[in-house]
Fold:
Amino acid sequence: MNVLEFTGLVALGSLVAGFLGALTGLGGGVVVVPMLALLFHVDIRYAIGASLVSVIATSSGAAAAYVREGYSNIRIGMFLETATTAGAIAGAAIALHVPTSAIAIVFGVVLLYSAYLSSKHREEHGAHLQSSPLAKKLRLEGTYPTPEGKQPYAVTGVGAGYGLMFLAGVMSGLLGIGSGAVKVLAMDQAMKIPFKVSTTTSNFMIGVTAAASAGLYLARGYIAPGITMAVMLGVLAGSMIGAKILVQAKVKVLRYVFAAVIVALGIEMIFNGATGRI
Amino acid sequence: MSTQDQAPAPGGFNDQRIEIIIGTLLRTGVILAAAVVLSGAIMYLARYGRVVPDYKSFHGEPERLKSLPEIFHGAIALEPRDIIQFGLLLLIATPIARVVFSAIAFAIERDYAYVVITLVVLGILCYSLFGSS
Structure:
C-alpha cells in the first residue's frame, strides 16, 4: 500500500466514522483510534495523535452551530474547563509512562462503557430544582430555549461534576478522544443540568480540552502529518454531512448498529492489548 | 445565558452576543485550518504519493515537525508536511483563541471572577503548547 492508497482509505474510513459519530451523537473519535490501530496497523500513539486533532475540528465546527441556538452555557463550560484541561495534561503525562498495550485495554473498556451509556434512556430533570450555594456563587444557572419559551434551570453537585470533569480530561489526554460521554454524565447526572444544555456545552468544551493535550502530543512527535491530514479532513467532512442529515433521519436503528460496532471494537482492543499485539 | 441577560454591560455586550461572536470565530478557524491542511495534503500526495508509508512502529516525528519555529520556517519554504503541520497548529489555536476572546469579553462585562477562571484555562493551554518544547 503506497501513500496515495493509504491516505484515500484512511480518509474514507474517517469520513464514515465522522458521519456515524455525528448522526448518533457518540462522536467520531472513539472509532478512529481502533480503526487505525486494528485495520491499518498504525502504532496506537500515531492513532491517538491523529484522533485528538480531529476531535478539535469536529467540536469547534459543531459548536459554531450550537452557540447560535443559545443552548450552551459559556460560564459552566469555562469553569469546568479548568478541570478538563488540567486532567488532559495529566492524561498526556500518564500516556508517556504507560505501555501501549495497557492504553489499548483502557481504550477498550471506555468503548464498552460509552456503548452502554448510549443505550440508557434519558429523562429531563424537573424545573423546580434549587441551585446549590456554590453554583449560585459561580453564577452557573442559566436559561435555555424550549417550545414554551426560555426556561430557567438550576445547577447542583458542583464538586462531583468537577471531579468527573477532571476524569474526562484525563481520558481525553490519555486516549485522544473527546470523552463527551463522561462530560455529559458529569453535567446531566451529577449537576442536574438539562440534557440539551449538557450535550451542547460538552461539545463546546471538547475542543479546549483536546487542545490542552494536543500541544504536548505535538512536542512528543505523536502527530504525524501524513495520517492526521486524512483523519482530520475525513472526520470533519463526515460530521458536517451527518449534522445536515440528522434533522430528517431516524437514528434509532443506526444508534444500535453503531453501538454494536463500538462493542465489537472494544472487545477487540482489549483482546489485542491483553495479548500484547498493540 | 445567565443573569447578564437582564443587565447589558457597557458597549451592549451580553452573553448572547458573545456566544455569536465565539461561534463565528470557531467556524472561521476550522475552515482556515482545513483549507491549509488540504493544500498541504495535495502537495504531499503529489510529491510522496508513490512512497510506501511505515506507521507500524513508532519512532516519533523528526525534530523539525515538532517545534513551532521549525514548522513556521518549513511552511514558509512550502514543505508539504510543514504546511499540514501549520494547518493543524491553526486548528489547535482555534479553541485557544476562543478562550482569549472569552477573557476579554468577561473583562468588558466586569465579571472579574470569570476573568480569573478563564486566565487559568489559558495558562494551562499555554503550558501545553509552549512549556514542554
Q: What stands out?
A: Residues 1-11 of chain B have pLDDT under 50 and may be disordered. DSSP finds four helices and no strands in chain B. The longest helix of chain B spans residues 15-48.
